Amino acid sequence: MSAANKPLNQKAWFLILPVILCVAFSAIVPLMTVVNYSVQDIISPERRIFVGTEWFVQVMRDEDLHGALLRQLVFSLSVLLVEIPLGVLLALSMPAQGWKSSAVLVTVALSLLIPWNVVGTIWQIYCRDDIGLLGHTLQQLGIDYSYTGNATHAWLTVLVMDVWHWTPLVALLGYAGLRSIPDAYYQAARIDGASKFAVFRYIQLPKMRGVLMIAVLLRFMDSFMIYTEPFVLTGGGPGDSTTFLSQYLTQKAVGQFDLGPAAAFSLIYFLIILLLCFILYNWMQNVGTQNPEENGHA
Asked: Does residue 143 lie within any of the structural domains?
């Protein structure tokens, strides 16, 4: 029997079936609980009233939610606009082989090993004007910097903190994409006398499109769910300048104990992330397919 006519062995699925069941159970049960809470008014553990879509309507009319959503969108887009080009630039500047390559990879990845709450604590100390290097330096330069009293300073500090923490992830993904490009492409470019910019545009960038798509989706989803770092650094303030969607949800569920509206908002939050990621993914796919000239050169 030829290899083409040989029946496929599907028994391997039984090996991963327990994992699939565990993941499905751990995801479906909490989701169904949230759906249950979102359509009920929980007066007491023994008394619940079905309210239908009342909580959804209330949440969608909440002005604080609109402000948190706008801040979240601006923050996530700012993260992508800074971290993706910076990560690509860092990946291009990293050595390709030898001991320097290993040393640079370890150094670049160090910030990714720090827990999120520790990152917030580090920057909280770093930005203080009495003992922090950044805060004290800016004060000495005559810049009235205060991440706890100025909304703009707080927002920019959270953005810079996120860039410092997660740009290495983009750089490592870009570096992996660059190392997967066969050397024959570079040899052909040298024969044609292509410039460095031409090599980047027609060889490196198209070949990195797959890993960059992963980087964009990962960073967008993660930044859209950011909670720990701004909570530790600023507590959502001053005012509500760094209160993003996840912290707004926590205030609803834990601070005010409004389980019904919090559950409704959780589902809306989930759908917003799915929708935006779907739009972003399809847009990046269309950008890649609408550049046949670049793909042809690659």
From this structure: yes
Name 44's bridge partners.
47
Is 219 a domain residue? yes
Whether 3 is covered by a domain: the verdict is no
Question: Measured between alpha carbons, how far is 192 from 180 in angstroms, rounded to an integer?
Answer: 21
Domain of 88: which CATH number? Answer: 1.10.3720.10
Q: Give 255 or 54, the one with higher predicted confidence.
A: 54
Residue 248 has pLDDT above 80, yes or no: yes
Residues of the chain above pLDDT 90, percent = 18
Q: Is 42 helix (H, G, I), strand (E, B) or coil?
A: strand
Interatomic CA distance for residues 203 and 103, integer angstroms = 26
Under 8 Å between Cβ of 261 and 58: yes
Mean pLDDT of 120-146: 88
Task: Flag whether 221 is in a domain.
Answer: yes
CB 214 within 8 A of CB 173: yes
Domain that holds residue 173: 65-258+285-297
pLDDT digits (tens, 9 = 90+) for 181-198: 888 888 888 888 888 888
**Residue of 171, 250, 149, 271 whose CA lies nearest to 218:** 171
Q: How many domains does the chain have?
A: 1
Contact 41, 49 (CB under 8 A): yes
Burial class of residue 34 in the structure, from the number of CB atoms within 10 Å of its CB (0-12 exposed, 13-18 middle, 19+ buried): middle
**Omega before 238 within 30 of 0, i.e. cis:** yes
